[in-house]
Amino acid sequence: MNGRTPSVRAPLDVSQVFSYGVLLVGAMTSLLPFVFMVLSGFKDSSELQRIPPTFLPEQWTLDNFTWAWDTLRFPRLFANSILITTIITLSVIYTSGLLGYVLEKIEFPGRRILFFAIISTMFVPQQIAMVVLWDFFNSLKLLNTHIALIMPFLYSGFGIFLMKQAMHTIPDELLDAARIDGASEIGIFHRIVIPNMWPSLAALAIFTFMFNYDSFFWPLIVLQDYDLYTVPLGLAFFQGQYFNDLGRALAGTTLAVIPTLVVFLVLQRRIIQGFTLSGMKG
Fold first, then answer.
1. DSSP secondary structure letters along 39-88
2. Which of 20, 44, 76, 126 has a 20 to 30 A CA-CA distance from 164?
3. In this structure, which topology does domain 65-278 adopt according to CATH?
4. How confident is residue 51, by pLDDT bands cut at 50, 70 and 90?
5. How many whole angstroms separate alpha carbon 18 and alpha carbon 33?
6. Is residue 10 predicted with pLDDT exceeding 70?
7. CA gap 45, 246 in Å, rounded
8. Per-residue confidence (pLDDT) for residue 276, from 0 to 100
9. Beta-carbon contacts of residue 163 (< 8 Å; ≥ 6 apart)
10. Which pTM does this prediction carry?
11. Quick check: 170 pLDDT over 70?
12. Is the peptide bond before 57 cis (omega within 30 degrees of 0)?
């Protein structure tokens, strides 16, 4: 006898195996069109027209990607989109965090009315808002500028609501202790609130970045010069000019999703954690 306790295998949980199986099938179903799009960008036109279609390219080629990169001037499109989206995202996460803190942790007259007024902006139809915004920027002679793309989205009613809910996870006792030590409210926000809110802020940053990076309708109304175009507008211009060239269209679409994919992969761990914390009650 070696004195070791014989290991006992846990019984197989059929429901758990079934759940994992369903999730795996769902993930594969969701990823398959994306993978097929990426692989099709490496095929030549003759292979793309083949029936039945091939999944893996028989002869790999970068011609579609190099053509799309040079012809559509993707560096310029990327620079425009990333600049605009980054400014909006940074502004949204800061203003949402600050206003969420003020509305949840600081008592002042009219706090509930102000909160409901902010939330009510989420229910205004986008088309109506764009008519007013277009007239406003036209009166300021700011149409066909990036300023008109950035200014209307520097704050988010959804972001404020999300951050206000996430503030429930920060104990009031911690904030009161900082106030007793003489910290100002803005100092408490920067030194205590923000470090404890990174999961929720990262989740908000992901969705804000993706939403504004993919924005199409408002930039289409505002912009006229190709040098100011964002990636979605560049792709729309491409499809209008070369709609019959499937390989180049798929290559251009693949290039377009790279920034959002990178942002998601970098911050993906924070998404579930952030929304879980935002739903917790204090």
1. HHTTS-HHHHT-SSPPSS-SS---HHHHHHHHHTTHHHHHHHHHHHHHHH
2. 126
3. MetI-like fold (1.10.3720)
4. confident
5. 24
6. no
7. 7
8. 55
9. 96, 97, 99, 100, 101, 197, 200, 201, 204, 278
10. 0.81
11. yes
12. no
